[in-house]
Automatic annotation (TrEMBL):
Residues 38-103 form the Peptidoglycan binding-like domain. Transmembrane segments: none annotated. InterPro entries: Peptidoglycan-bd-like, PGBD-like_sf, PGBDSf. Gene3D superfamilies: PGBD-like superfamily/PGBD (1.10.101.10). It comes from the Bacteria. This is Peptidoglycan binding-like domain-containing protein.
């Protein structure tokens, strides 16, 4: 189909096929929020980056392959997108028990 300047369902499906096929599994042992640091934050970013709809960033810090160990504003924004996508309320950007459970596949 011709490019229209928006990312519709077909484009999202194709992008996820091309870039979102990696499966990452992890267990989160603590809640995460702005200012959190550690390898678990990096795993969170990697998980969020597997879906074009919840990607941290397209380029630079936090982008696929450039995930960091710091939970900043871009990570919070991506967590909010994830929470909205999966109807986790409130969609606050805080990774607490409900969000951790969904991320872990529970």
């Amino acid at each position: 189909t011709p490019a229209q300047g928006t990312v519709g369902p077909l484009t999202k499906t194709k992008l996820n096929q091309l870039y979102g096929s990696t499966t990452i599994s992890t267990t989160f042992y603590r809640n995460l929020t702005i200012g959190s640091k550690g390898e678990d934050v990096k795993k969170l970013q990697q998980l969020l980056n597997t879906d074009i709809a919840t990607r941290i960033s397209a380029t630079g810090a936090g982008s696929p392959g450039n995930e960091t160990t710091y939970f900043g504003a871009a990570t919070r924004a991506a967590v909010i997108k994830y929470q909205k996508k999966y109807n986790i309320s409130p969609a606050s950007g805080y990774v607490g028990p409900l969000t951790r459970g969904k991320l872990e596949g529970r």
